[in-house]
Amino acid sequence: MSKIKSVIVGTGSYVPENIIKNEAFLNHSFYEKNGTKIEKENQEIIDKFQSITEIEERRYTSPNQSTSDIGYLAALDALESSGINAEELDYIIVAHNFGDIHEGKNRIDLLPAISSRIKHKLQIQNPDCIAYDLPFGCPGWVQAIIQADYFIRSGDAKKVLVIGADTLSKITDPHDRDSMIFADGAGATILAAEENSNKGILAHKTQSHTFEEAYYLKMGASDNANSTEPEDLYIKMEGRKVYEYALKNVPAVMKMALDKSGANVSDVKKVLVHQANGKMDEAILKRFLRQYQIKDVDHDIMPMTISKFGNTSVASVPTMLDFILKGKLGHHKINEGDVVMFTSVGAGMNINTVVYQY
């Protein structure tokens, strides 16, 4: 078992064409969580939001696109880059949070599973290709990669397609300032079994904190009590608590994973962190390196896409990986021998990290 490694052999992504700049929120009516209207000018709200999150714009799907649609497109991209026949896949694992949400509705559609829909769209006939969903908050794609690794190293699977897709724009409250954070997108990765390879997953670590933290992100009614659809539920976030939680716990999980892998911190060339909040991610990197007595932070180690794509939840890390490998993220590159860390934090509250060597 120890000789088999899970190796990334294909990546793909789908970034919606619809660009929503911060100015699009100037005419929104924002409310506090207690239901009182915020009297500040929207420009002031937007400016503060951008200074904290670094988000300038985000992408939304078209009204007729759902999570399974964009997950399918990312999967096609990954299959094309890998050269693998879809019929050879042993598993399709789809990480998402809200399933399909259809035009003009605020209802979650999860039957059949999003993975089943994507397998159907791919026209895979092989019944031994097992498709299932993984709702695990924003760390869902990383956790699906971890599960795929277990399948491969056990000998149960040779090829696994892992997808992260969400259409968060369809489940956000337009009266909540936090709605400006969320965006839509999909990323896909194919892992394959290779024996005696120098490449592949070296280690991983996951933690779930629920004693006090379970409801830092949850579903709730609109902040505007006079909403025309009061029974609708939206993403609700305790932003300050999430920020403090992440800074306290994410760096420690990253260190556990890296130490478990046997790699040295100097070997780490890229840290692909979930694009949740620009300032938060920068602080996480600093605290992670400080555990190794490194004070001078090379920010090039941590590529960022949040300013243009927003927070796409489970799609943020695989999309960033795909962009780097295909030369679509500026000067960023991943070279043979580089150690890369994939790390995420989100609803649950859950944290995870995968250490991978190229």
How would you describe this protein?
The chain is α/β, with parallel strands linked by helices. The protein is about 30% helix and about 25% strand. It is built from 8 helices and 13 strands. The chain has a 5-stranded mixed sheet, with helices on both faces. Strands 8-13-12-11 form a 4-stranded mixed sheet, sandwiched between helices. Strand 12 (about 340-345) and strand 13 (about 350-355) form a beta hairpin. Helix 5 runs parallel beside helix 6 (about 280-290). The chain is globular and about 60 Å long.
Q: Which range best describes the helical content: under 10%, 10-25%, 25-40%, 40-55%, 55-70% or over 70%?
A: 25-40%
Treating each run of at least 4 consecutive H or I residues as one helix, how many helices?
8
The SSE string, one letter per element, is: EEHEHEHEHEEEEEHEHHHEE
Mean pLDDT: 93
Radius of gyration: 20 Å
Structural class call reads alpha/beta
> What percentage of the residues does DSSP assign to strands (E)?
15-25%
The strand count comes to 13
Spatial strand arrangement across the major sheet: 1-7-6-4-5
